[in-house]
Design a protein that fits this description.
The longest helix has 26 residues. The chain is mostly helical and 177 residues long.
Length: 177
């Protein structure tokens, strides 16, 4: 009788269960802990209480690359940094606008969307072109409306800051010199 068969015959019953628990429980606990720890992604940046993750930066990076067209003259690291900076700036503006209680209604956003030329056919808003254009960008109409609303709120904030700007006579004199 071989040694393995001997172990097999004896490793039945209560002793087998005790060995399984002694060896199995640490492996299960290690696996659960590892799963929990790796399941939480670390943010690339934190603005206020909002976390910006690498996947958000990657989307913004892809958008910037798409805007550049076929120009191969860009540094990937610099462009990723620009994408992160853009996301941080947008979030700072958004949080300030929220703090100032600036808002845009759904009707205002829809009105603007219907005037955008790339959703029009023969001078009229085309719902089908709107949906296909958004789908090609991987965006739902709700996401696009939210993006437009954020843009309009940002524009409100910028206009309120620019509209309230003033210069003292000393600043004007310094600027003219």
């Amino acid at each position: 009788m071989s040694m393995l068969q001997n172990i097999r015959e004896r490793a039945q019953g209560i002793m087998a269960w005790v060995m399984l628990i002694v060896v199995g429980v640490p492996f299960v606990m290690w696996g659960i802990q590892n799963y929990i720890e790796t399941g939480k992604e670390k943010p690339a940046a934190v603005v206020g209480d909002r976390e910006i993750f690498d996947r958000d930066v990657s989307r913004a990076y892809e958008r910037l690359v798409g805007e550049m067209g076929s120009s191969p003259d860009y540094d990937e690291k610099e462009l990723r940094r620009a994408a992160l900076d853009q996301l941080v700036s947008e979030e700072v503006i958004s949080q300030n606008a929220d703090g100032m209680k600036l808002a845009v209604s759904d009707d205002e956003a829809r009105e603007l969307i219907q005037t955008l030329p790339y959703f029009q056919v023969a001078g009229q808003f085309d719902k089908e072109k709107y949906r296909t254009s958004l789908a090609s960008q991987g965006m739902t109409p709700e996401q696009f409306v939210a993006k437009i609303k954020r843009g309009l709120v940002t524009q409100q904030l910028e206009q309120s800051v620019l509209g309230s700007a003033f210069a003292t006579p000393a600043e004007i004199s310094t600027l003219l010199r």
